[in-house]
Each structure stands twice: as C-alpha cells, then as structure tokens.
Design brief:
single chain; 142 residues; mainly alpha; Sufe protein. Chain: A; three-stranded antiparallel sheet; 5 helices; globular
Length: 142
Amino acid sequence: MTETSRLPAALSEVVAEFAEMQGQDKLQLLLEFAGELPELPAELEEASMEPVPECQSPLFLHVDASDRGSVRLYFSAPAEAPTTRGFASILAAGLDGQSAADILAVPDDFYSALGLAALISPLRLRGMSAMLARIKRRLRDP
C-alpha cells in the first residue's frame, strides 16, 4: 500500500476521501470525480495533446511545466468514459498546480490506496498508472 505521507496534500485528500468509502460507494465517488473533470482552456485543442493509448477509452493529456514550481495538467476524455474521466479528474484534483518535484515523488502505485482494485479491472487501473507515468516522463524530458 502506498505511503500517503509521500503524496502532495491535495492528492492525499483525494486518497482519504476514497478511504472513507466502502464498496460501491467508491465507484459512486469515482463517477462524481468524472463529472468534475475541468474543461480544457480555449487555447488548448485535443489534437495538440498527447494520447494515452494504454487507457481503455480515448484520453489525451497536456503537461505545462513552463513553471516547474506549479505544473499545470490538462486532460480530455469523452463523457461516455466515466472511469477514465474519473481517473483523470483524480490526477487533476491531486496534482494540478503542484511542483514538478512533488509530482515526480508520487509513488507509481499511489492509486492502489484508492481501494478500487476489487471494483475496477486491472486493465483500467493500468490506464491510471499510464497517465501518471506519462506526466512524469514529460517532467523528466521536457
């Protein structure tokens, strides 16, 4: 299990929210996050974003690390892909605006602390892992 003390405060809060839920309530919380995925800013088009093919549904991300002290993360996923949108929204809520160093320090398996493994297929969970891996890669190789 991931040590939550190594997570940025905002991501730790998200993990704590999931820890308070049991069973299907965790899925409901994931769906709530899906509905909260921020819209893309007008100047950012999906076509210019990086696809994450490991995800079961189309997902695109953009990492703006021009200010390494406050990295901006943008995600695009269709409304009909609530699991993927939920994962992206968790990362947006927990990591957007964090420093590059803090994001790079997030354990690759942090999502295991969400307690979704019994409810979500391993293939879908790998999608969340792939999103984080791509974000980290962008921060290491700008």
